[in-house]
Design a protein that fits this description.
The protein has 505 residues and is α/β, with parallel strands linked by helices. It is built from 16 helices and 15 strands. It has two domains: 282 residues, Rossmann fold (3-Layer(aba) Sandwich); 188 residues, Rossmann fold (3-Layer(aba) Sandwich), CATH 3.40.50.2000. Strands 3-4-5-2-1-6-7-8-9 form a nine-stranded mixed sheet, with helices on both faces. A six-stranded parallel sheet has the order 12-11-10-13-14-15, with helices on both faces. Helix 1 crosses helix 16. 48% of the residues are buried.
Length: 505
Amino acid sequence: MRLSKKNKTLKILFVASEASPFVKVGGLGEVMYSLPKALRELGHDVRVMIPKYSTIDSAKFSMSMIEESLFVPIGENAGGPEGHMICNVKKFLDPDNGQAVTYLLENEEYYEQRGSVYGYDNDPTRWALLSRGALEFIRVNNEWRPDVIVSSEWQGGLIPNYIKTVYKDDPVLSKIATVFSIHNLYFQGMFDHRFISEMDYDDGQSEIRPIGDPLMSKMNFMRRGIRYADIINTVSPNYAREITTPEYGELLDTLLQERRSHLFGILNGINYDAYNPETDSHISFKYNAKNLKERYKNKEILRKKFNLPDGNDKFIIGMVGRLYEQKGFDILMEVIEPMLNNIDFEMVIVGAGDSKYMSFLSELEKKYPNIKAHLSFDAILARLIFAGADALLMPSKFEPCGLSQMEAMRYGAVPIVRKTGGLADSVEDYDPLKQTGTGFVFEKFDKYALFGTLIRAIETYKYPKLWEGIQKRAMSANFSWSASAKEYAEIFKKAIDFNLQSKKI
């Protein structure tokens, strides 16, 4: 039964390079599981399509063949002399997720023979094949066709491009609206877009190179997705505003300004079932906002795990995630030693990344017994930091959305963040006069702003009732996917309207 036009049931296909539970490298994989699930719970028919990598366990995920020997054209012309590539499409019905449908594009050379998802010289070919393979599958699959296709990151940028050019007259594909989702504008393909030569510049309007053409690596898939999509979406409202400026626009700000009326930002959610301090099997003591005394027991567990001195209640700052410039480690390096020399607090860090930051932290550990670093990512240790640390530090230079701050808030670890991207949308600065706020926020990206905000947090911690008030407000914030899914459904409807309007021009 179809709903009213206002509440129309949508058929939505997400095409992505990764999706949990099949393969998850970063946050995109989690989004490709949680967002479709939340949309299904709203009544929409949502399916996902990813490559069938060799690492996907066929015994665990029982698949059926639904399209054998799918011909995928290499060049612009479906019947042209360039030829075709051959793929299969398999289907998985998830018994643990309401029989949710996932399509897997199978190709021996480009997916089955690859042990990793990313990092190959022919990645442009692999993502072009995924994009065009998905579209050709839709053309021949009479069983189900989407109203909207959502493609993500630069890897999915060719889908809107193909539909608006190669398939603009196709009776099936031309009717499908496209949404291009930007999770991080910084990553735009195989070459450094910030130092591109005039010869290699791609305006996004030239003919798409044939799949497998070495020159495809010179195409800016991100630019093409932005230029041709009916809707461009980012993972937070503030990031959507930021990327229209030269500071954050990564040389695409002018194009994004041109398409501003088609640009939207929706804050990602977190999985409330997986991240729940009342039920989390990875922490020793379960608790909620009404029972924070149990949380303090996890602080002692955290101390023992990181070999910090027992029997004190020193302020513990945690950090979780990648050790990169984006995460603000340059300004942290400038302030951390003066703080350790003059202020009595402790710090625990879990993550890996650039060698210069890892070396710095290793040397820091040798000099100061109150800082500990686990220099590889460990999801269980991350949970322990959320459940035991007093605060979570994210001094990011830029942060499209950020999930760690929301996960930490769910567990009562108070976020200390820079006011950028999704951090600005998710953390409210503490106001001691009004007794409002869920964390500590600084604006300017420099050592003085970071230093001042850290001191402000450490001093506030000395007043237990005030600190508990911040914790409780943070824990009560709603970052579930259900709210985000409703917003996504609305922009999908806008995409359909925009696509219809484009046909009338």
